[in-house]
Design brief:
Blueprint lengths: L3 H6 L5 E3 L3 H6 L21 E8 L11 E3 L2 E5 L4 E6 L5 E6 L9 E2 L4 E4 L4 E5 L5 E6 L9 E3 L2 E5 L4 E6 L5 E6 L5 E3 L5 E4 L3 E5 L4 E6 L5 E6 L20 E3 L2 E5 L3 E7 L5 E7 L6 E2 L3 E5 L5 E5 L5 E5 L10 E4 L2 E5 L4 E6 L5 E6 L10 E3 L2 E5 L4 E7 L1
Parallel strand pairs: 1-15
Antiparallel strand pairs: 2-34, 3-4, 4-5, 5-6, 7-8, 8-9, 9-10, 11-12, 12-13, 13-14, 16-17, 17-18, 18-19, 20-21, 21-22, 22-23, 24-25, 25-26, 26-27, 28-29, 29-30, 30-31, 32-33, 33-34
């Protein structure tokens, strides 16, 4: 639902649906009110040994990701707490309070860490937690910021990208996307590449690459097109962060398609009908994604051949996934973490992180797996 204030700030024709991933779930088949599949017994082929655990504060029902830079993890809560945590020990190095609520996690390059308030004010801190600057963007922000190449990239709800100098907050560039007749009111993930560009999805079934230096659009590719009669049926935004492995980039749209292409040009190698709001994860040869029913599929990155499908987590509202080694990891709405064989989709391990939803993708760094739940538990695990 959209307020009159938002309507006046955006084009009058724009309809924005939902505020969160839960809203996406609700408009994609009512999976949030359907009974989730019972968990079948699993004989764990490996264990996830907890190395450290800390509480960073609740983000429910928002999808907060921690950010990793150097030997530290940066995490935030919905109430405005922002923490720097030692990656090796889990000890909090510093914690500050942002003077407004947050709807997204932080961004950091290790020198500058930023949190964006729900009203669009960007708060920047140095490596010691001291305030560097704050800048009002003038629009609501639901997408997590990127800090890379000396630039802070902020994406607003009205389809505007703003590049700020990471040290001073000075505005370096603006890039305005055209508005769609209908778009989802959610955060759109941005994937930084080599401190030079970000790859991100757009409304209307498109994704593209933007230069960090000047905000220029390098390429843009349609992965799907609106279809159906009603405006809701025609929703097909690429909301989740695209994935990349080597020279191949993959993306998926809601009520649209999944596909992979060349990262330098955006030219698609293939695409197939598929629908997801949790995005893609990649290995060298496969791309993985889960649909609104939490059915998990693996496709060959070279030609889109369906390699396997696992339907055993139906309506468990699985989150974003991580492809690491020979394993695919993802959490679900009850705080379980599931591990699947990348080769055949078999469930090879399971453990419970906590009892709250895990919507953010696990992060692999330094031999550890980091997992943050919406309840605020952030933990580092070592696979054994």
């Amino acid at each position: 639902m959209i307020s009159m204030k938002q309507m006046t700030k955006q084009f009058a024709s724009v309809l924005v649906l939902g505020a969160l991933m839960i809203a996406l779930i609700g408009c994609s088949g009512n999976s949030s009110v359907r009974k989730p599949a019972e968990l079948a017994p699993v004989t764990n082929q490996f264990e996830m040994v907890p190395i450290w655990t800390t509480n960073v504060g609740s983000s429910e029902t928002f999808n907060f990701h921690p950010a990793v830079a150097g030997d530290a993890v940066y995490a935030a809560s919905n109430s405005g707490n922002l923490s720097k945590i030692d990656l090796a020990t889990g000890k909090k190095i510093w914690e500050v309070s942002v003077p407004e609520r947050l709807a997204i996690g932080p961004g950091s390059d290790g020198r500058t860490t930023v949190a964006v308030g729900i009203k669009g004010t960007v708060y920047a801190f140095d490596d010691s937690g001291k305030s560097l600057w704050k800048v009002s963007i003038g629009s609501e922000v639901l997408s997590e910021p990127v800090v890379a190449g000396g630039v802070v990239v902020v994406r607003t709800l009205d389809n505007r990208f703003v590049g700020l100098d990471a040290q001073t907050g000075t505005r370096k560039w603006n890039y305005q996307r055209p508005q769609s007749a209908l778009s989802l009111r959610v955060g759109y993930g941005m994937l930084p590449v080599n401190n030079e560009v970000v790859v991100t999805g757009f409304s209307g079934g498109r994704f593209g690459m933007i230069a960090l230096a000047n905000g220029g659009l390098i390429w843009e590719t349609p992965i799907s097109f609106p279809k159906g009669f009603s405006e809701i049926e025609r929703l097909n935004d690429v909301t989740a962060q695209p994935s990349m492995q080597g020279e191949i980039v993959c993306a998926v749209s809601y009520q649209g398609r999944i596909g992979c292409g060349q990262v330098r040009t955006g030219n698609l190698l293939w695409y197939k009908d598929f629908s997801s709001y949790t995005g893609t994860a990649q290995s060298a040869e496969l791309v993985f994604s889960s649909n609104e029913k939490s059915h998990i599929s693996a496709f060959a990155t070279k030609d889109g051949t369906l390699v396997w499908e696992n339907t055993k987590l139906t309506f468990r509202n699985v989150g974003e996934s991580l492809a690491i080694g020979r394993v695919l990891l993802m959490g679900d709405a009850e705080g379980y973490v599931h591990a699947f064989s990348q080769s055949n989709g078999d469930n090879i391990s399971r453990f419970r992180h906590d009892s709250s939803p895990i919507s953010a993708a696990p992060i692999a760094v330094g031999g550890l797996i980091l997992i943050q739940s919406q309840g605020g538990k952030l933990a580092a695990y070592s696979p054994k």
